[in-house]
Amino acid sequence: xxxxxxxxxxxxxxxRTILATIGLLLTTALLLYVVLETRQVLTWCVxxxxxxxALAPVVGWVQxxxxxxxxxxxxxxxxxxxxxVLFAALITAFAVPLAxxxxxxxxxxxxxxxxxxxxxxxxxxLLERTNALQWVQDNQxxxxxxxxxxxxxxAGVLGGIATGVTGxxxxxxxxxxxxxxxxxxxxGTLALFAPATSTRIRRVATDCARSVTGYLSGNLLxxxxxxxxxxxxxxxxxxxxxxxxxxxxxxxxxxxLVGATIGGVVAVLAGFLHSVPAGxxxxxxxxxxxxxxxxxxxxxxxxxxxxxxPLTVIVAILVGVELxxxxxxxxxxxxxxxxxxxxxxxxxxxxxxxxxxxxxGEDRDPALAPHERADDGTPSxxxxxxxxxRR
Length: 391
Known about the structure:
By secondary structure, this protein is mostly helical. The chain has a domain at about 40-135 and about 165-190. About 80% of the residues lie in helices and about 0% in strands. The chain has 14 helices and two strands, in the order αααααααααααααββα. The chain has helices at about 15-35, 40-65, 70-115, 120-130, 130-140, 140-150, 155-190, 195-235, 240-250, 260-275, 275-305, 310-325, 325-350, 385-390; strands at about 360, 365. The protein has a two-stranded antiparallel sheet with strand order 1-2. A hairpin with a 4-residue loop joins β1 and β2 (about 365). The longest helix has about 45 residues, at about 70-115. InterPro entries: AI-2E-like.
């Protein structure tokens, strides 16, 4: 009678493995906590990095042409100052007319309110048709309570403005320092790797930087197109302050997918305040333009500047909006392009070679007839190109 084999006894898990696992979990939890607590600062760093990548080629060009390859600090300072001046000029071009017209409206406000109460003028006619005056008279107490409650979050609004100004200054300083010290940091980091690996990393990083620059230039081009077309439509419709409204629409359009909608709401309201036909014309224009921009203009422009498939552009924006909101919409396309560059490089260096005999279809039929293939399996008249050279 044969005896049963003795059961296998699993060796105990080493204490070192248990401690290492616990340490890894604690480190991961600590890292997540730090990221959540410093997400505002990390957001500023990411935005500053994108602006630094966009300004780096300009700084390099100024350094080579103006300073003959020297004094990068002066070249960086010059480019950042010019960019800041352009940004300040853009804000001034928007804020000054707005302040002037706001002063005029404030002076005419008593007359407008009196006309509205008596049902005169465009506002009075609108209120009379919608029975808004009667609703206001019936709900005066609620409106008073709501207005008094608006004073409560005033400190929060001021705090938000202060945070925005702080963030803007922080982003500018970070972008300046990143552009200035970027080459030293890159060279010092790449010196840790072997020459072949260092060259590969530098090439991939250059492609990623080009994708970010292409995204920013493409997004700016789309915003210019949107602003110009909006100006033309408002000018034809006779809407006042067409240039100011078009400038706001162009700035808002920098936000993919939803930017045109945000600017379009303002433009449509301005059109209806001018006249009903003008409002309808502006509304029809934005309904058509938004579809054209989201599904044709943005995918085509970004496919050329960022080298990303149009379908990938739309999917990346939708995913970015769902995950991070407006910032995700702004960063989705360059992030998708960077992932594509890295994935292509990994594929080319690991397993990206073509098959000896390319096939198509469910039946795996040869893609080329026998007389079209050379003896080594490649297409006749074609040469074998290394993956890096194909790019």
